[in-house]
Amino acid sequence: MTGVTTNVPDDFFAKRLEILRELVPGASKIAVLINPDNPLQRLYFAEEIPRIARHLGVALPLVPATKPEELDIAFASAAAQHADAIIDFGDALTYAQAQRIIALAAKYHLPANYLFRHYADGGLSVYGADTADLFRHAGDYVDKILRGAKPVDLPVQRPTKFVLIINVKTAKALGLTVPTSLLIRADEVIE
Predict the structure, then answer these.
(1) pLDDT tens digit sequence for 65-91
(2) CATH of the domain at 52
(3) Which helix (H) or strand (E) is 42 found in, with range?
(4) Which in 31, 66, 156, 168 has the greatest CB count within 10 A?
(5) Rounded to 5 degrees, what angle do the CA atoms 86, 68, 135 make?
(6) How many folded domains does the chain comprise?
(7) Residue 49: is it exposed, middle or buried by C-beta count within 10 angstroms (0-12/13-18/19+)?
(8) Distance of alpha carbon 2 from alpha carbon 148, whole angstroms
(9) pLDDT digits (tens, 9 = 90+) for 138-171
(10) Domain range spanning residue 43?
(11) How far is residue 157's CA from residue 61's CA, in Å, rounded to a whole number?
(12) In the chain, % of residues over pLDDT 90
């Protein structure tokens, strides 16, 4: 198996949580939107979520959705559990339902962090792999294969470039003040 992946080192999820906590100081309960049908997420959450929760001193209740019609239930569950914010772990389901997820976060007044750039239009914050850079790497792989390289000899490449996007307009709608330190680190700020 070869190619380019969006999977990143284990501390990446913790970094996303830290960014969200900077946006929502004092957040002690952050709901995690997951797809339990995604085997990678199942494995990650079984092993890593308890460790990360202990390390950061936050509760991380999981709110599952395996199909689009379950997203409303997941967000209602986060609100019923009095979550201070929500983080979308990110997979094919949530990627395809981005606008709906942004609307649900607004409806339930939940500050959110997302994995992919296309959430930035309306979403509070994005921290994830620079997909344009990943596409360039994928193009390099295609070129190598077309020139005769064996796919089995090409390692899977993880992202090395990441983007932080903050939507100040959404922050204001949620009654949040974005810290200057976060604005300085952002690759893009949406007014």
Answers:
(1) 999 999 999 999 999 999 999 999 988
(2) 3.40.50.2300
(3) helix 39-47
(4) 31
(5) 75
(6) 1
(7) middle
(8) 15
(9) 888 889 889 999 888 888 878 888 899 999 999 9
(10) 3-190
(11) 31
(12) 63
